[in-house]
Amino acid sequence: MQCAATVAGASAIVFAAAFALPLLGLPSLLLLSGGSFLTVGLYRRRSPAALMTPGVGARLGLSTGVLLIAALAVALCAMLLLARFHAHSMAAFDAQWSAQVQELLERTQRSSPVPPDAARQMMSPEFRAGSMLAGLAMLAGFLLAISAGSGAFAGSIAVRRRSES
Fold this sequence. Notes:
The chain is mainly α. It has six helices and no strands.
């Protein structure tokens, strides 16, 4: 867990810094997708005699993914809170969101009528928060699948390398 926490914390810091420095965009994406490789590598370095299989690698990757999601959630919440309440720079985001929901409502109205209550609810802050949380939950699931898969792949590489020695 120490290896997974180290990789997740470092990835969250690089991810948060990528918002301020666009140059860090690619390294943050590589850390998000390849964090499990780093975790398996750190684990192998700390305990070389430990059993390493694709299953162990997948579990390491999954734990890295869970910790990474938690660290990213904290970092993203902090950045968005600062942007909204300290810098007051979320007006453009709010306008873009409202325009997209309005366009969705207009497209839906063309095919079937939308009740006025539903249209009001779709323009509410609660709907915005719920749909953002649903989108983040889908991204979290995707990140967990990638983390477990890359951890299993890294574990299988470590098994091969161990059997060749």
